[in-house]
Predict the 3D structure of the following.
Amino acid sequence: MLKACATQPATDLHSPPALINQGPELQIADIDILEATPEMDEFLERYILNYSDDHTRLFLLMNSITPNGVLGFTYDEALTLTAKESFERKTGNCIGFANMMVVLARRAGIKAYYQEVFRRPEWSSREDTVLLVKHINVVLEVTGYTYVVDISGVKINPNMHRRIIDDSYAKALYWNNIGAEALLKNDLASAHAYMSKAIEVEPLMTDAWVNMGVVLGRNEQLHDAAFALKYALELDTSEYSAMSNLYEVYIAQEDLESASTLQEKVEKYRRSNPYYLLKLSDEALAEARFEESISLLRRAIRKKKDDHQLHFALAKTQYLSGEIEKAEGSLLKARELAPEDWLTYYGQTLDQLVQGQ
């Protein structure tokens, strides 16, 4: 989910298929993600607007949002928020931060734009769902200078392709992310409603059509899921996430002929996904092919070094293959990377952990 690249406009616009057997269709009220508040204006008046020079205003604004600044914004990749919410809570993901920064900058007399950054594919795993992560930041302009503001800590290579996106596209990204959060909770009715809202705002957004296909597929509307995913591919023929999901739909429909047309590309794409490699390693482990399982996990870790689950999977496989010392080292790495709510679980011995699987 969540993946989109630059799109090739289609000649016809489509409406997403309705969700069936999930109760009354939810209606999502429109909101202004760039709404300013009296508190935001008060902040600007107190710390920024007393200075007439636009370079000084920019400098003060950029410093105020750092973790140690007056506002003290902290990055949280799981929180998709409006400008108002991000300012009040002083946190949010790249969309929440961008919403807040665009509002503050514009009200301080600084030109501000959303920028989408096209990085190499990066996956995240949550609630048994694999997310393909994308990224946006903010471009600020003052007389003679342009600055990029990004608080995420994500390393941006200067050679990475990027593009300015308009406010409407950014709003669609917001609805798409909210829909993806609902999908992670398997709340299909809400996910469908939010994805529909994203498509209403930006009909040619590939991300939302891919995610709509996932929603419909989980609701066993395979024909409708195929429609949404094929339309995503019409918008962007290189959209591998759409191909991968469409491949699964064809398999579920027992349409092996159509599946075979995508299989080679899908397999190549999936082998760059660390969680697909984890799946293959689990299959190898189930058949006691330890060496193959370990090799697949090492490849997965090279692609996603900071995921404790991958290191624990390696520890388990090494333990079962008899490499006890190496397994302990892998478990130690998993413990180092694990969030707080996992520490009790990882406090057990390796033997207890493996027996409890």
Observations:
- Strands lie at 74-75, 91-92, 111-126, 129-142, 145-149, 161-165.
- Residues 2-11 have pLDDT under 50 and may be disordered.
- The chain has three domains: 38-203, 222-270, 274-355.
- Residues 134 and 349 are 37 Å apart (CA to CA).
